[in-house]
Amino acid sequence: xxxxxxxxxxxxxxxxxxxxxxxxxxxxxxxxxxxxxxxxxxxxxxxxxxxxxxxxxxxxxxxxxxxxxxxxxxxxxxxxxxxxxxxxxxxxxxxxxxxxxxxxxxxxxxxxxxxxxxxxxxxxxxxxxxxxxxxxxxxxxxxxxxxxxxxxxxxxxxxxxxxxxxxxxxxxxxxxxxxxxxxxxxxxxxxxxxxxxxxxxxxxxxxxxxxxxxxxxxxxxxxxxxxxxxxxxxxxxxxxxxxxxxxxxxxxxxx
Length: 255
Ligand SMILES: Nc1ncnc2c1ncn2[C@@H]1O[C@H](COP(=O)(O)OP(=O)(O)OP(=O)(O)O)[C@@H](O)[C@H]1O
Fold this sequence. Notes:
alpha/beta, six-stranded mixed β-sheet, 10 helices, about 40% helix, globular, ABC_transporter-like_ATP-bd, ABC transporter ATP-binding protein, nucleotide-binding, ATP binding
């Protein structure tokens, strides 16, 4: 993680509500440039909703979200497009277009955002696909022809299509076997270091937290209850945090 703590995402007083259900109530969070932040919390605490709100898929009821110092909720459409070019998102299921090949999926954000000759997009797409450890043969395959792990990698290649500064990952290792999950963690860690990425990662995976996260943010009680390193999490006196970081699964990871 870089020494200067420059916040690239600043969330303040966020309120999200669906009908009578308040999911976030005054949530604050900073994400610093170059860090890998793991976002954890019990099921339904609003981790995915937080990610989706930051990237503009959910409009919050109240609060402010600054990304790269700009208020994304008040940005014009043109400003938003400029900001969106600077991040990539990997959704839980990869969210690939099923009717497009892997290469066409990776080219899609380039077609939308850049005006480049097709030969250049193809070359860049192939580069991203190799960066995530997929063989060249994968370029011409459709998502349905890939394993779950390969689909995640293809989704990651698409998230990297525009050379983003921030990557948002929603439970990237969910559904992978432990070896596949460890390999995916290693890939994210390597890419983060070599590309200097800031990573916002929603996860349930204690191995991922231990392996690649610089800091952890715990969602509970409709807000970010606490942030800190894994070591700091061990000292937090809160029932859910204690159970999560001291439970049998945690002991196996931190031992
Ligand atoms: N578009 C929506 N409309 C209505 N309710 C929603 C919507 N999106 C999410 N919710 C509700 O908001 C709450 C938080 O959902 P979210 O998916 O963020 O949880 P999570 O912390 O990511 O959970 P999990 O760990 O189980 O994936 C849930 O109760 C969910 O039903």
